Amino acid sequence: MKIATLRAWFTLSKPLTHVLGILPFSLGGVLAWNLTGSFDWAVFGLGIFGALLLMLVACYSGEYFDFETDTLAIPFRNRFSGGSQVLQKTDTIEPIHSLIAAFVCLILAGIIGVLLQFHFKTGPLTIPLGILAMIAAFFYSAKPIQWAYIGLGEIWIWLAYGWLSVATPFYLLTGGFVPVVHWASLPIAFTIFNVILINEFPDYPADKQVGKKNLVVRFGKKKCSRLYALVSAAVWGALALSVWMGVPQKVFIFTVPVFALSVMATNRILRKDYRDEKKLERLCFGTILCNWGVTIGLIMAFVL
Length: 304
Description:
Shape: globular
CATH topology: Farnesyl Diphosphate Synthase
């Protein structure tokens, strides 16, 4: 395979975005180790590989089914929106190849789920949890459902990159759930909600043109900027609640810089900084940093 083709596939895969899923999955593993004192590296390794495959499913299927809207978004997009643009700007990869890659990753993820449940005996909910993740990943953009097109995309992202990404590895490693797992996932779920919400701002003209019914198209940027502020407040309310429900209090120490960044981003979006392309790009990046920071803060709180 040519170097140019490898680079194209690497860009198409959007590796940095997968940190949004790998970090909460790691938190689930840390929780299992912290609360039970045991850890199976084979199970965790297979689990995180399966999670990565499903994130690639969402990525590749999205590149294929969002081809039209990503093409229309070219004049408005920034580094965090509008797809990878590999299919639009090069002829190295055909759109159909992206869809084929999505199916290959989906099949491989299914095989991993079967191995985990029946060979590693991870529990009867292994495959159901995997199927839920598959439904979220593939049908986020894929027809005939297209969660992102009918106004449910943000909810699926909230679930998949929040609770599901934390609870699944914990279940695989322990065979059950405990309440603190659910509470610890809640602030992460709210931060990822804001990530997807702010990334819809630059894509608004293209999404509206193709008939996407995400929150920004439905309610407009002004109302969604207020929603962003409310969800930002919910992040910190959820974090405080999670501490009350068993998360170590030291999480507040590790998330002080994130709180400052969150307040600054919220202030800027309420000042309508999203009307400036460069400022909006910085808001998108800042929101991603909030997600990473909250998740890393939770990991550090349990590790230390």
